[in-house]
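Changelog entry

Holo records now carry the ligand SMILES as an explicit input line rather than a separate metadata file. Below, a converted record for S-adenosylmethionine, shown in the new format.
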Amino acid sequence: MSSLLLYCRPGFEAECASEILELPARVPGETRYDPRCGYVLFMPTDADTAVQLHAQLAFTQLVFTRQWFVVCEFLKDLPRGDRIAPLLASAHKLGRQFCDVFIETPDSDASKPLLPLCRALRTPLEQGLKQAKLLGKTTASSPRLHVCFFTTDYAALGYAHTSNSSPWPMGIPRLRRLHDAPSRSAQKLEEALRVLLNEEERQRYLQAGMQAVDLGAAPGGWSWIMARQGIHVDAVDNGQLAASAIATGFIEHIRADGFRYRPVKTVDWLLCDMVEQPSRIAELIGQWFVRGLCRHAIFNLKLPMKKRFQEYKLCLKTLRGMLAQTGREYEIRGRQLYHDRDEITLCITTRSP
Ligand SMILES: C[S@@+](CC[C@H](N)C(=O)[O-])C[C@H]1O[C@@H](n2cnc3c(N)ncnc32)[C@H](O)[C@@H]1O
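Structure line, unchanged by the conversion:
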């Protein structure tokens, strides 16, 4: 019987577990996790359901899961001198060829010391897999081998479909450091654009000459990311914008209340990073779509300490209800990004502009 291993931000295991149990497939099963361990194990009641769930539930629908894979075997007492042989034997039992291999560990304080071991094992495991003809060419349907170390001698081994999982180990994107950015938040929007849009969508939705409004823009990190794409931004905030944001020449600073500001014409993008109650933000974003003020939006919901999952569901319900009033079709995606703390980032794109 297989299970699913879901990586999440440490401290958000309960939300990650609630999501897999409640949304949207409602597969009966049991979740296991320790506080702040950075992952959840989901064990469906019926054998083989984990395999089906991984194949059928779109990874993009999961908000609190950064990465996932089907666990086929737990390997205990891995010998210090040769961990590769048992890993290869276990991979061999799966009877398939893999396009890649990720050696991972949860993103928790307890597991971080295992990262050098993960790095050290990558080349020998790759070589062993190649010699055994278990690592081959990538096709759209080839699975990726995953090994997750919980301790130096205890690991889970399994696979994920590349088309239905994160392309990065542990679901953490490797992004270039943005040295000139006005704020660290810039990295968050950069990650959101990589995680919540695919390549084709980025090309279609982020074009030079487009217009954006950034609510709660100061000091200007999000505006700066859009400006780098040649997108004109009205940056709404009573606070100061950094000189590097102004210097782009694409950003106009508007000192106004983000809850009151409305553009004269429909803009391509609404961005919102105001620190406010999530329900108020969801309502505001919904209003912009209902009034046809924007085509797409990326925004942050700062989740309260208690009832975080319930709050997220309430916001989603509000947004879906308001978007339904427009008669248009939308794609809503969300993720607790690596750069998100007690918050999540949502992206709404108009499918039929
Ligand atoms: C987290 S910071 C935004 C950081 C920004 N996204 C960046 O990349 O640099 C939140 C900002 O929201 C602004 N803010 C909060 N409430 C606001 C409101 N009602 N109207 C306009 N700005 C607001 C604050 O002044 C603050 O600058």
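Spot-checked after migration. The pocket of S-adenosylmethionine is lined by residues 182-183, 185-186, 216-222, 236-239, 257-259, 273-275 (CB under 6 Å). The longest helix spans residues 115-131.
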